[in-house]
Amino acid sequence: MKQDSTTHGTSPALAISSWSLHRALGLTFPNRPDHDVEAVAEPTYGPGRLTLLDMPRAVAALGIDRIEVCSFHVPRRDAGYAAAFRAALAEAGVTLQTLLIEYGDITDPATRERDLAWMESWIDTAAQFGAEQARVIAGRSQPSREALDMSIAGLTRLGHYGEARGVRVVTENWFELLPGPREVRYLFDRLDETVGLNGDFGNWSGEGKYADLEAIFDLAICCHAKADFSGGVLQAEDYRRCLDAADAAGFRGPYTLIYDGPDADEFRNLLVERDFIRQYYARARASAG
Questions:
Q1: Does residue 8 lie within any of the structural domains?
Q2: Residue 157, Cβ density class (10 Å: 0-12 exposed, 13-18 middle, ≥19 buried)
Q3: Using N-to-C axis directions, what is the helix angle for 112-129 and 79-92, rounded to 10°?
Q4: Quick check: is 243 in a domain?
Q5: How confident is the model at residue 5 (pLDDT cuts 50, 70, 90)?
Q6: How many domains does the chain have?
């Protein structure tokens, strides 16, 4: 069932991904299907000045009460750490919207079963951490009928696995398997409602980008609202046209703010994205009134 967090013209729910704070967090903990061991901290983006337990409070200070967390930002998956993270969420009044499971290819016959089992273990982690959703990758293969059908079978398995644990599984218009709306719609015409679509502004490009986004956003239950910060400033026309495409398709949020531009001040640029979306909907409300 399509999630509708707002009515047209009202401000949608917003979230912030841990990817948007990767400089502030600094450390990553790369657990992958081919390296499924207890993650050891790597200073991928420097030593960091926030821990994951600090993130809910830092996001709440921006007036936003939802977050998403990349799997490689999770330092531990034991029950004690999960309880500490849920306590940090509760104290800040913040909801864990999605655990983003960042690896795995369910369309590679050689590693499919391994990767499905690994993703299931992370769906268990999502449930432990109190996440509403878990995002999985639909596949990394070229979009043949065989690969798409393999993805459908794998996503269906993961969707039911998540449903049994109170976690909605979502996938997104990402990577080689889903280069355009035709492939996305083929997939979702054959999936049941245990799997949702996370539409992403930043994964497609080219002349037909906005029409392509509009062609799938009626399916979306959440969105990665990534702005283009080329040149160090938000490209307003592009962001507005992405929002127009989503809105025209009937999407009403939640929008997850994604920032990975060149300016190291992540918090300042997240506020730019936040305010742009709020002003977009304020104008829509004013014109409707």
A1: no
A2: middle
A3: 50
A4: yes
A5: very low
A6: 1
87-92: list long-range contacts, CB under 8 Å, 24+ apart.
88/53, 88/54, 88/55, 88/56, 88/57, 89/56, 89/130, 91/56, 91/57, 92/56, 92/57, 92/59, 92/60
Phi, psi at 224, each rounded to 5°: -90, 105
CATH number assigned to the domain comprising residue 75 = 3.20.20.150
pLDDT digit string, tens, across residues 137-153: 999 999 999 999 999 99
Distance CA 26, CA 3 (A): 33
For residue 53, give its domain range: 14-288
The residues facing 200 across adjacent strands are 224
**Whose structure tokens read 């399916």?**
219
Specify which residues 169 forms β-bridges with: 134, 195
Any domain includes 223: yes
Based on DSSP, count helices (H) and strands (E) in the chain, helices before strands.
9, 8
Q: What is the pTM of this model?
A: 0.95
Instruction: Give a yes or no: residue 1 inside a domain.
Output: no
- The per-residue pLDDT for range 159-192, each reduced to its tens digit, is 999 999 999 999 999 999 999 999 999 999 999 9
